[in-house]
């Protein structure tokens, strides 16, 4: 077999065999196939797409590119969570401690920023000293002792995804259904949890821009997960405007801390509760949604959810003082106010544009080896549906540079105003399960 022929075959729109897909995944993981051929192949896949069967072959090949974690020594049903990627999406930092405090063992493998979206691992590195790259043994030990660990793709789990993820990030080949499904499900399957809750984002800040594509992606992943023996469900949630009020690594950590204290923005809180509720149900710790919610509200109120977050940071070597003193988190040098040009209401905040603005500030990567700036980001003083007066501050840009006129005007252009009162958009559209969709 030759990789050239496989690239050509896909470029021409043909269906690949299991063997051809495995040949690519193994060759690229082992470094035999170079980045330039893998890039060309990703672009061919992007344009020609894969069918469901090819997607399953790709997922399995990626799972088999490395080890599969055995979590059976950890007591209880392990439930994992993953988002398809959004802007300002801080849910993992809220949900993981929240459900761990409620009794669900969380062994979570997370990623770094991808395209215009942020990544949990980058955010966690806002705690000085935090180690995301830990061994399997340490990962399991932490889940056993404190019910929680969040690691980057530890050791040799789905190494094919680790390489492809970084490559896709910088070659404009992220937003393809099969590539996203295989990327997420290979990680989740290799990570060894018993059940999986997916948060499939939809809207202009998501990789899937419309509901139909998002449901397709959700169904594909739910089918792959259940087909391989893991109970998998997907929540479909809105990503037209950024989630919460912050976009940017350390700023999102501060927002997660506030949310765990019960003082977070309404949308981030609601989505976190919805995901956590489903995790408790899949963990079989509760009878239904009402009981789950009561339990979750209790661990926020009594402080144990926040304490769980602190335990996670300490266990992985981070400076946890920042949890009680958020001013110890990385801070940008300058804060620049963005003011409303008119009276009225916020009609739209284009999440993709806000994400790209954050990227321009330095919050994300434009090359595989770029270093990101944890300090910078955007605070949204106003969100969709809120009233504004002319001259009122609508956003604050946290920057380490002063001459950022192009960034300021780009952020300004992400806001759309209207004179008419409008309501905040729907946050959760529905839940996809193996037997159908429950619309919300
Ligand atoms: N999250 C992932 O882990 N992979 C993708 O491809 C997109 C979002
Ligand atoms: Ca946020």
Topology:
Layout lengths: L2 H9 L6 H12 L5 H14 L3 H12 L15 E5 L7 H11 L4 E4 L10 H5 L11 H11 L1 E4 L7 H11 L7 H14 L4 E8 L8 H17 L3 E8 L7 E2 L1 H12 L5 H17 L6 H13 L2 H12 L5 H4 L9 E6 L4 E6 L1 H13 L13 E4 L6 E2 L4 E7 L5 H10 E4 L9 E6 L2 E4 L1
Parallel strand pairs: 1-4, 2-3, 4-5
Antiparallel strand pairs: 5-13, 6-9, 7-11, 8-10, 8-12, 9-11, 13-14
Helix pairs in contact: 1-3, 2-4, 4-9, 5-11, 5-12, 5-14, 9-10, 12-13, 16-17
Bound molecules: uracil (URA) and calcium ion (CA).
Uracil binds next to helix 9.
3D structure, described in words:
- With 440 residues, the chain is of the alpha+beta class.
- It folds into three domains: 3-48, Transferase, Pyrimidine Nucleoside Phosphorylase, Chain C (Transferase, Pyrimidine Nucleoside Phosphorylase, Chain A, domain 3, Up-down Bundle); 79-325 and 428-439, Nucleoside phosphorylase/phosphoribosyltransferase catalytic domain (Pyrimidine Nucleoside Phosphorylase, Chain A, domain 2), CATH 3.40.1030; 330-418, Alpha-Beta Complex (Aldehyde Oxidoreductase, domain 3).
- 45% of the residues lie in helices and 16% in strands.
- It is built from 17 helices and 14 strands.
- It has helices at 3-11, 18-29, 35-48, 52-63, 91-101, 120-124, 136-146, 159-169, 177-190, 211-227, 249-260, 266-282, 289-301, 304-315, 321-324, 351-363, 405-414; strands at 79-83, 106-109, 148-151, 195-202, 231-238, 246-247, 334-339, 344-349, 377-380, 387-388, 393-399, 415-418, 428-433, 436-439.
- The strands form four sheets. The chain has a five-stranded mixed beta sheet with strand order 1-4-5-13-14, with helices on both faces. A four-stranded antiparallel beta sheet has the order 6-9-11-7, sandwiched between helices. A three-stranded antiparallel beta sheet has the order 10-8-12.
- β13 (428-433) and β14 (436-439) form a beta hairpin.
- α16 (351-363) packs antiparallel against α17.
- The chain is globular.
- 57% of the residues are buried.
- The model has no long low-confidence stretch (mean pLDDT 96).
- Calcium ion (CA) binds at residues 88, 90, 243-244, 246-247, 252, 255, 268.
């Amino acid at each position: 077999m030759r990789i050239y022929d496989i690239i050509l075959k896909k470029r021409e729109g043909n269906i690949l065999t299991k063997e051809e897909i495995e040949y690519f995944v193994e060759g690229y993981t082992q470094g035999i196939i170079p980045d330039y051929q893998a890039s060309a192949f990703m672009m061919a896949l992007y344009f020609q797409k894969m069918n469901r069967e090819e997607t399953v072959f790709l997922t399995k090949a990626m799972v088999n590119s490395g080890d599969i974690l055995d979590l059976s020594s950890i007591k209880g049903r392990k439930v994992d969570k993953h988002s398809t990627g959004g802007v300002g999406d801080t849910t993992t930092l809220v949900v993981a401690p929240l459900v761990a405090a409620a009794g669900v063992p969380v062994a979570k493998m997370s990623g770094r920023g991808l395209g215009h979206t942020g990544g949990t691992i980058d955010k966690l590195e806002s705690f000085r000293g935090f180690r995301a790259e830990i061994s399997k043994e340490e990962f399991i030990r932490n889940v056993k002792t404190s019910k929680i660990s969040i690691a980057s793709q530890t050791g040799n789990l789905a190494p094919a995804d680790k390489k492809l993820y970084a490559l896709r990030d910088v070659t404009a080949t992220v937003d393809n259904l099969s590539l996203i499904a295989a990327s997420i499900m290979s990680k989740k399957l290799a990570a060894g949890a018993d059940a999986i809750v997916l948060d499939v984002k939809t809207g202009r800040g998501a990789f899937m821009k419309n509901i139909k594509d998002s449901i397709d992606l959700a169904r594909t992943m739910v089918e792959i997960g259940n087909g391989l023996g893991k109970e998998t469900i997907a929540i479909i949630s809105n990503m037209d405007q950024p989630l919460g009020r912050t976009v940017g690594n350390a700023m999102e950590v501060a927002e997660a801390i506030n949310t765990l204290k019960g003082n977070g923005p309404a949308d981030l809180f609601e989505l976190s509760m919805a995901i956590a509720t489903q995790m408790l149900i899949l963990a079989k710790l509760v009878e239904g949604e009402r009981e789950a919610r009561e339990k979750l509200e209790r661990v926020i109120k009594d402080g144990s959810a926040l304490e769980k977050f602190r335990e996670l940071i300490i266990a992985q070597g981070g400076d946890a003082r920042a949890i009680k003193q958020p001013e110890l988190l990385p801070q940008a040098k300058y804060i620049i106010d963005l003011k409303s040009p008119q009276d009225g209401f916020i009609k739209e905040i284009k999440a993709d544009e806000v994400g790209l603005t954050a990227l321009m500030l330095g919050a994300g990567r434009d090359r595989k080896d770029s270093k990101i700036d944890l300090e910078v980001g955007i605070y949204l003083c106003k969100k969709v549906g809120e009233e504004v007066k002319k001259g009122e501050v609508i956003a604050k840009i946290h920057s380490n540079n002063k001459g950022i006129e192009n960034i300021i005007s780009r952020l300004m252009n992400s806001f759309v105003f209207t004179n008419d009162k409008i309501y905040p958009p729907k946050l959760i559209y529905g839940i996809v399960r193996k037997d159908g969709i429950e619309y919300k």
